[in-house]
């Protein structure tokens, strides 16, 4: 395996306000843009050429990663003028691929944190002779995902999108967002229009009698589509629960990046990250949270399972639990924000103005 496509064009609507100024794959997780972890894991599996399929805020990717040489990769960038869906995005970058018609091409979604054995997926593809191979994982509640039942040999028998009734839930195997395509299959995707691989390409291939192979890999897997999931994923990277060679430091309870300032009596636990130039004041307690660059957490604040955006400020004694504070926001002293509260970028909450709120 030498070649891959990374789909990084989504708007990350569910992640706002994290994605107001930053595309989802570039939001920091465990101290570096999340995309860095995916690129590093691909390189470790033997990939050396990657095409990034970009769209939303496409201009930020290349200045950061350049030609990919710092990661041991050759990276190219292709931008969609109009959103093309997963299949359309894959087809849109086909001209940049170097593979022959029968060669395998690895494809990743840009919002999945996984411990997938990439080499095993490629081996499964090659030994089975499949046209497309899919990473499948098992979940307790599959209603929010696409079900992928397989026969005893692992061959895919159907695609069932987001079932709701008990009768529709025929398996706990879901599409986990990583694939290996035979190059010729990519070239056959219709060009120049939106295409969904989940709703059009895969069911169409199955109806035509193509060989789609599933490989169940039930190692770590997390869809980072919500702020709560993103915060959890970052913490799991720091704690070592989710594997990545790109974590900039040793795994443990905390990751404090260079130029950050943390008071000696502040307590950081649960995979907390403190970004470059951030300041954590005396007696602050931060658990399982991400404090982005240049943010300030004042004395005595208590932050749990939350994210504080770049340049934001959290006032003294304020409590955050499961909250997201956007870039540059100001939360005054003695506030209490819990259970999914999101504070928009640049917003200002005066001292003591909010004691508790939810679903906002």
From TrEMBL:
<dbReference type="InterPro" id="IPR056729">
    <property type="entry name" value="GMPPB_C"/>
</dbReference>
<dbReference type="InterPro" id="IPR029044">
    <property type="entry name" value="Nucleotide-diphossugar_trans"/>
</dbReference>
<dbReference type="InterPro" id="IPR005835">
    <property type="entry name" value="NTP_transferase_dom"/>
</dbReference>
<dbReference type="InterPro" id="IPR050486">
    <property type="entry name" value="Mannose-1P_guanyltransferase"/>
</dbReference>
<comment type="similarity">
    <text>Belongs to the transferase hexapeptide repeat family.</text>
</comment>
<feature type="domain" description="Mannose-1-phosphate guanyltransferase C-terminal">
    <location>
        <begin position="252"/>
        <end position="334"/>
    </location>
</feature>
<feature type="domain" description="Nucleotidyl transferase">
    <location>
        <begin position="4"/>
        <end position="236"/>
    </location>
</feature>
<dbReference type="Pfam" id="PF00483">
    <property type="entry name" value="NTP_transferase"/>
</dbReference>
<protein>
    <submittedName>
        <fullName>NDP-sugar synthase</fullName>
    </submittedName>
</protein>
<dbReference type="Pfam" id="PF25087">
    <property type="entry name" value="GMPPB_C"/>
</dbReference>
